[in-house]
Design goal:
By secondary structure, the protein is mainly alpha-helical. It is built from 2 helices and no strands. It has a domain at 1-53. The chain has helices spanning 8-53, 65-80. It is rod-shaped and about 105 Å long. The termini are far apart. The mean pLDDT is 85.
């Protein structure tokens, strides 16, 4: 059967199937993007929650030697007075 032999009805049905296929792929692509964004938001929320729950005695950074020295000098200065 050649393309010219297809009836108008058959061509119309093929176009509908292609259109449906394209719409389904678009829908699945949008759904995948939405799920990806929701997963990223969930991870960020968990990360922030973990930071909030972090023990206040845990230090997230270490002071440099210079900073420690200055602090020590200043504390000694104020404690002497």
């Amino acid at each position: 059967m050649q393309k010219n032999d297809l009836s108008a009805h058959e061509r119309y049905n093929r176009l509908l199937k292609k259109d449906e296929f394209i719409r389904n792929n678009l829908f699945l692509s949008q759904l995948w993007e939405q799920q990806k964004q929701e997963e990223e938001q969930r991870r960020e929320k968990e990360r922030l929650e973990a930071l909030r729950k972090k023990d206040k005695h845990d230090h997230s950074a270490n002071a440099s030697t210079e900073v420690k020295t200055r602090l020590h000098v200043n504390l000694n200065f104020f404690l002497c007075y």
